[in-house]
Amino acid sequence: MTRLPEETPLVTQRPKRIYRIFDRGSWPEARRIAEVLREETIGGALLLAGALVALIWANSPWSQHYEALLGFTVGPGALHLHLSLAKWAADGLLAIFFFVAGLELKREFVAGDLRDPRRAAVPVAAAIGGVAVPAILYVVVNSGEATEGWAVPTATDIAFALAVLAVVGRSLPTALRTFLLTLAVVDDLLAILIIAVFYTAHLSVWPLLASLAPLGVFTLLVQRQVRNWWLLMPLAFATWALMHASGVHATVAGVLLGFAVPVLRGPDAHGPGLAEHLEHRFRPLSAGMAVPIFAFLSAGVTIGGFDGLGSALTDPVVVGIMAGLVVGKPVGIVAATWLTARFTRGQLDSGLAWIDVVGLALLGGIGFTVSLLIGELAFGLGSERDGHVKIAVLAGSLAAAALAAAVLRVRNRTYRRLRAAERVDRDRDNVPDVYQM
Fold first, then answer.
1. Do the domain assignments include residue 322?
2. CATH at 119
3. What's the CA angle centered on 89, arms 88 and 93, to 5 degrees?
């Protein structure tokens, strides 16, 4: 009897998982991002309103009253805090803004979807590209003159960008909104590093070292989940005041305080973690008060009619800032995203195309809050060049917004289809079906 040879078993290989860029992520993260974006969109509308009122007032017959308001001083001189209202807005109110940015960034990388290094690589690389290219372009345009303003066109204003989205991109898919928010938050962190390193003119070591004491006690208390505002607020204020006295821009204290707050809850804890708790408390304050008031006290620039505007637009500083915002930011963001995709062998998520990345990159060219702050630090608050910076930031941001609106409008039908698919919940469990596949 002839024995048949045994059949060789077939070896089945598991299909290789394709890495998707701009996938929608998890449902809890998408829900949290949606809540954040709603608050920031409202803040963006208030920011634009504040900037518009400032511009009208500064160019009205009553402009001297606006200038008097900016120069009005208040605060204890013994603590080096007898400051003008404009200075209080830049150093004080924006510290709240950067505190929330620190909380948001830490949550994203510790507990959010970006704790996966491959998911974090895209927005981080895009933010770095969106900072490097406009800075280089500014320096090239200015040819070695007034190079202290190189960082002005590097910042993205998320509130302003979302206000534009509220008009032209209501159907933008969750993944693209999340990317824009994360890009802007990382952008803010890079901006505060630039401010701390390159725009600290005079450093006093002892106040800087002294600021570590209240910061350390604040960190110890929040790590123990202490939520008593009467303990935390004096420590936060002391850290801010000592940082301000040291010569380091006081907004740096906001980021450090935000980073000190723990994100993850203990095993026996109930309810939201401390970072989430503080973010819920301070984000409305930042978006609804701090940033709009800063815009109102910073955006008022006397244009001086068409002659004054024409003179400003010929200034190489203005040309460099506008070129950085309108050209440098989108080129840097798109190039860095494409290179990251090539390096990680990632593909765009289903339904998306590279034109969508271009639209988001153009939105990244909307720089306002931090750009105005850096302009004041670079050229001096109230100087002629500071006025030119304001004109450049406003004009460049409006141009970037218009271009972004034109690009995103082309894809609006696709966005509506993708957005509708994200809302389908056939089993009625309050979780869209696309997040359960």
1. yes
2. 1.20.1530.10
3. 100
